[in-house]
Design a protein that fits this description.
The chain is α+β, with helices and mostly antiparallel strands and 146 residues long. It has one domain. Helices cover 23% and strands 26% of the residues. The protein is built from three helices and ten strands; from the N terminus they run ββαββββαββββα. The chain has a four-stranded antiparallel beta sheet with strand order 1-2-10-9. A two-stranded antiparallel ribbon has the order 3-4.
């Protein structure tokens, strides 16, 4: 399966299993990238954005993403981290954690994504570049540890 990350950038993943749409992953913080913010702006949804640990993220309602109601209301233009799940790349003082090549959904262990290390490295640097751009444009409010 090919996952589009940004214009001209996509990665291949092998998928085993199927999502059960339980919404448990929607309890996680959904951090946003510049393309995500532009998509939300295009659809008039920037009011659904908040800051979490100095980074733009989707707001939550009742402990889940504001766009979850049994299914994703913005599925066609969902954020990059949602498209990648269960592959997780989480900000940790602006350092990105991505250290393995096979990811299982923690709520449905039958759903597994496998990714080549080369694509994982490209993805890592894409996220670092996103953080640099957001910092440059004042969209994030955290230290200088890039």
């Amino acid at each position: 399966m090919r996952i589009k990350i940004d214009k001209g950038f996509s990665i291949n993943v092998k998928v085993r299993g199927h999502c059960k749409y339980c919404g448990e992953c929607c309890k996680d913080t959904v951090y946003l990238t510049i393309p995500d913010l532009l998509n939300l702006e295009k659809h008039g949804l920037l009011d659904k954005v908040t800051m979490v640990h100095g980074l733009p993220a989707l707001k939550k309602e009742n402990g889940k993403c504001v766009f979850y109601n049994g299914r994703c209301k913005i599925y066609n233009f969902r954020p990059v981290v949602c498209r990648l799940y269960p592959i997780t790349i989480t900000p940790n003082n602006l350092k990105i954690q991505c250290t393995k090549h096979e990811y299982a959904c923690k709520y449905n262990t039958e759903l597994v994504y496998s990714i080549r290390y080369s694509d994982l490295i490209k993805l890592f640097y894409w996220f670092v570049r996103q953080a640099e751009l957001m910092k440059q444009y004042g969209l994030i409010k955290i230290g200088d540890e890039l």
